Amino acid sequence: MTSPLISVKNLTLRFKTDEGMVTAVNDVSFDIAPGEVLGLVGESGSGKSVTAKALMMLNAENSVYDDNSRITLRTDEREIDVLSLKRPKDQMIIRGGAISMIFQEPMASFAPAISIGDQMIEQLMIHSDMTPAQAKEVSIEMLNRVGIPEPAHRFKQYAFEFSGGMRQRAMIAMALSTKPRLLIADEPTTALDVTIQAQVIELMKDLVDEFHMSILFITHDLGVIAQTADRVAVMYLGNLVETGTVRQVINTPAHPYTRGLLNSLPKLDDLEAQLTPVPGDIPSPLDRPSGCVFHTRCVETAGIAEQCRTQIPGYTSDSSNHQVACHLATQGDQS
Amino acid sequence: MFHFLQFAATRAALAVITLIMVSFIVFSLMELVPGDCAERYLAFKNTTGAQISVADIEAERVRLGLDKPYVVRWGTWIVNAFQGDFGDSCILRLNISQLLGEKFWISLVICLTSLLVAYLIAIPVGIISATSKSPVVNNSLRLVSYLGLAMPNFLLALMIMLFSTMVFGDSLTGLFSKEFRDAAWSYERFIDFISRAWLPIFILGWSATAFAIQTVRALMSDEVGKLYVLAAAARGVTGRRLLWRYPARHSLGPIINSLGFDLNRIFNELPIVALILTLTEAGALLIESLARSNDQQLAGAIIFLLTASIVGINFVTDIILALTDPRVRRSILG
Fold it and tell me: How many CB atoms lie within 10 A of CB A107?
């Protein structure tokens, strides 16, 4: 197996707030291989965006990384210890250089009074030695590549003159212009119409192959994940509860929370089927449950409720590296 | 470029239409005051002992053109006003342009300079305080702001006068020293003006600055939290470029937009300061002509000049906004 492009080890991240330290990400570890698409799934507040932003050190200034946390990025030339990059000059490699990010709302992610082209040129000039003329040429080429008609004309326009789908295409063009090794896509299709959504996903899949880059695809939509990702990581309240290939996680979900998420999806082939939402609400991160963080909403604790309430489940893994943090899985091993 | 020219032309046309409408309102208000110039003048003559008949009043009306229809008189007034001629004052029987002289322009210069100073201070300070995490910086700025907002202008003026009289033996009142009061403009007179005018500018600018800091700070705090700032940081934009090119630049639109309103607010504050510092300026003259002498011709002229200045400033700020924000350029009437 090739060495991973990026390794996240024991990532723990807390926010200093007036109410005390709030744990947003708790002891999260995962790898992304070169060319791999990892889907990061979870409800709002599960810590998936915070985890993604940690890869670029983009979290707010009140964030505190635990001493054991390690994020290692391997580019062709060197290994970068991401969390040790303190100076803005050093952080540039993970901000728009080796890692790019696109966001949920393409309208809001462009500065409204600066043209799309100027923002693209800016990024290229920060990360390369290009002249403005070269940067412009590359930008127009990229706009053309992502399927924007009349790219030379569109280059001069502003975000408010683009449609939703075109904006996200332009965002992707800008993010990929510096040829990053990893693209972080934070719910990139959530704000788009379903048909446009499919087009954008198709485009991203093409570009992964063409540029041979990896994608960290964040979403709460398991349907989108099934179409795009190679592997899936499921997060709940800052914890990683299950990781595995798309097939493993969707066909044989091992964690009760993953099962709950899958059951709450509407099914087109069985319109009579009842929707079964995961009961209850996600607890406040200020008041994290003891033991397994999911036990307050879990419907499968029968017989081991005491264990779930008091003991933190470790990760168990089957032979094909399908990992889950659940006491049910450990019991299965023992029997 | 095409969009910009189209925008500028539309705005210029709108400004002229606004001015014509304003002139109609001002003229109508002048007409609404009971009695006209002929009656008022002859009533004054009466108090000096002269015998006045109804025929005299009618003759005076014809002489002043007051017998002509309303619309015709408005038309004459507006055409003359655009040429800088506001006719004669009813009471003082003097040409208004002569009477006002440079007073209006001096008032305007004082107000505009106060605004300029206020924003030169408020924009950097507001931006820094919105992005600074230091409690010392934030609390001291808050204190200065509250002092500026809470302390009335006249009190500040009185305190400075008192202090200056005790320390320098000069109360710093008036706009010119005696020898320059009626002199023609020269370099020396300008210097003399500056050496006096800084005080009203400072006093007016004081509260305007406090007000502006609060505005800039609020706008900036709002803007730094927006997604496009995070997105720019994610592209590798850092430091001052990330601050000025992104949130700062985008937070200035509403400030530019409100400059016309600010000018009006400061002009309204000017008479109180002028009264205490015994400045001869147009704001005080306006109150005098409205409240005491009932000189509708003079009051109308000052109100029209003030409104024209505000419309002018709004036009300029619209042009600046259109230059800085493409969304404004594309919205012809927006």
Answer: 17
pLDDT at B333 over 70: no
Which residues of chain B are within 8 Å of residue A154 when distances are taken between CB atoms?
Answer: none
| Distance (Å) from the alpha carbon of A109 to chain B's nearest alpha carbon | 4
Q: Which of A316, A315, A319, A295 is nearest to A27 (CA)?
A: A315
Contact in structure between A216 and A38 (CB atoms under 8 Å): yes
Residue A126: list chain B partners with CB under 8 A: 235-237
**Where exactly are the structural domains of chain A?**
6-112+164-236, 258-334
Substitution target in A86, A114, A179 with the highest count of B β-carbons within 10 Å is A114
Those residues with Cβ within 8 angstroms of residue A229's Cβ, 6 or more apart along the chain or in another chain: A37, A38, A39, A217, A246
CB contact under 8 A, B250 and A113: yes
The span from the CA of A68 to the CA of A85, in Å, is 16
Flag if B250 and A112 touch (Cβ within 8 Å).
yes
- The residue of chain A with its CA nearest to that of B246 is A111
CB contact under 8 A, A119 and B232: yes
CA B295 remoteness from chain centre: 21
Work out the minimum CA distance from A250 to partner chain B, whole angstroms.
32
User: B-contacting residues of A 297-326, CB under 8 Å?
Assistant: none
Question: Is A108's Cβ below 8 Å from some Cβ in B?
Answer: yes
- d(C-alpha A6, C-alpha A1), whole Å: 14
| CATH topology assigned to domain A6-112+164-236 | Rossmann fold (3.40.50)
| A-B contacts (CB, under 8 Å) | 72
Domains and CATH numbers, chain B: 2-100 (no CATH), 103-292 (1.10.3720.10)
For chain A, 335 residues long, give each residue's pLDDT as a single digit of tens. Answer: 578 999 999 999 999 988 889 999 999 999 999 989 999 998 888 999 999 999 999 998 889 999 999 999 998 778 999 999 988 888 988 999 999 999 988 889 999 999 999 999 999 999 999 999 999 999 999 999 999 999 999 999 999 999 988 999 999 999 999 999 999 999 988 878 888 888 888 898 888 888 889 999 999 888 888 888 999 999 999 999 999 999 999 999 999 999 998 888 877 777 777 777 888 888 888 888 999 999 999 988 888 888 899 999 988 888 888 999 999 887 654 43
Q: What ipTM score was computed for the predicted complex, to two decimals?
A: 0.89
A90 CB near a chain B CB, below 8 Å?
no
At what angle are helices A116-127 and A132-145 packed, to 10 degrees?
120
Averaged pLDDT score across all residues of chain B: 84
Residue A176, amino acid: L
